[in-house]
Amino acid sequence: MERHFIVRGMAVGAIGGLLAFLFARIFAEPQIQKAIDYESGRHTAQSALDKAAGLAVEHEHAEPFSRAFQGNVGIGVGIIAFGIAMGALYAVAYALACGRTGKVRPRTLALLVAGGGFLALYLIPFAKYPANPPAIGHEDTIRERSGLYLLMVGISIVVLVAGAWLGQRLQARFGTWNATLLAVLACAVVLGAVMLVLPSFGELSANVEAYGHHATETPLPLRDAQGRIVYPGFPADTLFAFRFFSVAAQAVLWGTIGLCFAPLAERLLGPRPDTNAAPATV
């Protein structure tokens, strides 16, 4: 049975990844291009400041793949592969949840697991460490940022699983509705405390040393030696649009996985027709 779940999970994950890619290609890709254009312009302005100050000018390196290849084939393959991996992980989570959720129908359970995956693997970590387009992020903090993000993903999974367990434990005493509210409140308190404790990306040591204390790594206006702005900060509208479409693309992925897996799970786990029943008489 588990093998059937995983095969179907990978299939619906591929479909979800394809739809998420099409969505991201239409809506998020233009924001990425704007970010790349901003980064290129900022680099040119920084080079001019360095040259005027008699400092060594850092030259941009040629990319091994063209921008068109990256924005189409590269992103497409990456998102579809990610969808397949998430579909397999989703199927494993679904198999583990079967038999542990009372009388929840297979179709309903499929949607609940997809919603949990969206929350635990993306939306909750996003609330602390939102997705950023190119041009945002210090190259010396990549390892720290990756580690903090993965830590936030792991904590989200653990807290949501613990919340589901707590809700089941409280159900007999407080009823389904109140037990669910109490479990959600407990998860919110724990996750809120974790987000307060974990540092923001702008507080990482390399960023503080280079830019001072700031909440994020979003580039501020570039100034010359006299303090005059020679290049603006990163456009807020572009940042908002990129993050909004990033969340929407993940919603497309997880929504597709849940909606496509639901009828398959119902077919696998639902009551089978009685083949030994006597044929109907005319």
Automatic annotation (TrEMBL):
This is Putative cobalt transporter subunit (CbtA). InterPro entries: CbtA_put. It holds the Pfam family CbtA. Keywords: Membrane, Transmembrane, Transmembrane helix. It comes from the Bacteria. The chain crosses the membrane at residues 73-97, 109-127, 147-167, 179-198, 240-262.
